[in-house]
Design a protein that fits this description.
Largest sheet: none
Low-confidence stretches: 141-156, 181-207
Structural class: mainly alpha
Strand content: under 5%
Helix content: 55-70%
Radius of gyration: 35 Å
Distance between the termini: 91 Å
Shape: elongated
Number of strands: 0
Number of helices: 15
């Protein structure tokens, strides 16, 4: 994955095509750079509100936001909060645009999934649902309600040929992204429990924000190809002739050709050493950066460990209380009278059998 900058993300959004593979790829890029979630949402929101943005790309942008939010839930709530803050304005903007009925119904389905999985705050979901319901009614798209649950495969089969069929196939493929997270929706409660274990608050490298494990691993792997590990160049430097570094050798020169040969060797050695020194300087900077990343990562892990220990202590306390209630319940059950022996202990006559009932 490439580094994050706003211009890079802008270019990726502009180049984004409405295909499942590209949406998922850009979504992974955004999730990886979760510490820049504020900047990601800002660039995404700016891209959506550009007047030159094609209407057909609006739905692709919404699917991208959906994929980013749902796939980042296990790492933290940052994206859900940031996207939630702009969603009302986003749908107000979308409500002013002229969509075909199929796109309107796709957004209706998207909102329905957000409500079902509680992706955003209930207040935000209520507001955007109200805005889009009004758009839905005004558009006359209700006639497509019966087609809302139609599978992408059936839509592909019922579509025309050529360009129309290809376009329908692409739309169906993208809409399948909405169904993917359903397989893990049963673990939502567990995800909510793990959200608080997140020391990251956003920012930029070097500002004290811990790197993602993938970023740290990549940085360490990059150091394996650093200048100090370049055995080939080091061997070339070791094999340089001694005369290129000894000034006294100049006095032993007897002719111009010998001087020219030595001059060429010195120039070659100088170029080699200059390049290698520049690489070593860059390596030094990279190692300092990696050292800082490791320090921030360890600090974050200590923070996470402290939070986990606090949570463990909390749940152990809850477990002790449950065991206490369990013991009290066992004691109470043991103290209850034995129902089956009540008639014998009280001297009451036993109940008549079925045979006795028919003989009298």
């Amino acid at each position: 994955m490439s580094e994050f900058t706003e211009p890079i993300l802008e270019r990726k959004l502009i180049d984004l095509r409405d295909s499942q593979k590209e949406i998922q790829s850009l979504s992974q890029y955004c999730v990886l750079h979760r510490l820049h979630c504020k900047a990601v949402v800002k660039v995404w929101y700016k891209y959506k509100n550009i007047k030159t943005t094609a209407v057909k790309r609006e739905l692709t942008a919404m699917y991208l936001a959906n994929d980013v939010v749902q796939n980042s839930k296990k790492r933290g709530p940052e994206y859900a909060k940031e996207f939630g803050m702009v969603m009302r304005k986003v749908f107000e903007h979308l409500a002013d645009m002229d969509f075909d009925d199929k796109t309107i119904m796709s957004l209706v389905r998207l909102i329905g999934i957000w409500q079902e999985r509680q992706i955003f705050d209930k207040k935000i979901l209520h507001e955007i649902s109200k805005i889009w319901d009004q758009k839905h009614k005004n558009s006359g798209a209700a006639k497509l309600t019966g087609q809302e649950s139609e599978s992408p495969k059936k839509r592909r089969e019922s579509s025309g040929s050529g360009t129309e069929r290809r376009k329908s196939s692409e739309i169906a493929e993208i809409e399948e992204l909405l169904d993917v997270p359903l397989q893990t929706s049963d673990s939502n409660e567990l995800d909510v429990e793990t959200l608080t274990l997140s020391p990251r608050q956003g920012g930029s490298p070097g500002s004290g924000d811990p790197p993602e494990p993938e970023e740290l691993i990549q940085a360490l792997q990059d150091l394996e190809n650093s200048a100090s590990s370049d055995a080939i160049v080091r061997e070339k430097i070791a094999k340089l002739p001694p005369e290129v570094s000894e000034v006294a050798r100049i006095e032993t020169l007897q002719s111009v050709p010998e001087a020219k040969v030595l001059h060429g060797q010195v120039e070659e050695a100088s170029t080699l050493l200059d390049d290698y020194n520049l690489r070593l300087q860059e390596e030094l900077k990279d190692r300092k950066k990696v050292g800082s990343m490791i320090s921030e990562f360890l600090s974050a892990q200590r923070d996470l460990l402290a939070q986990a220990e606090e949570r463990l202590e909390l749940y152990l306390d809850k477990l002790d209380k449950i065991h206490g209630v369990k013991d009290e319940l066992k004691s109470h059950i043991a103290a209850l009278p034995d129902i089956p022996v009540l008639p014998a202990s009280t001297g009451l006559a036993p109940l008549p059998s079925a045979g006795d009932l028919f003989t009298h």
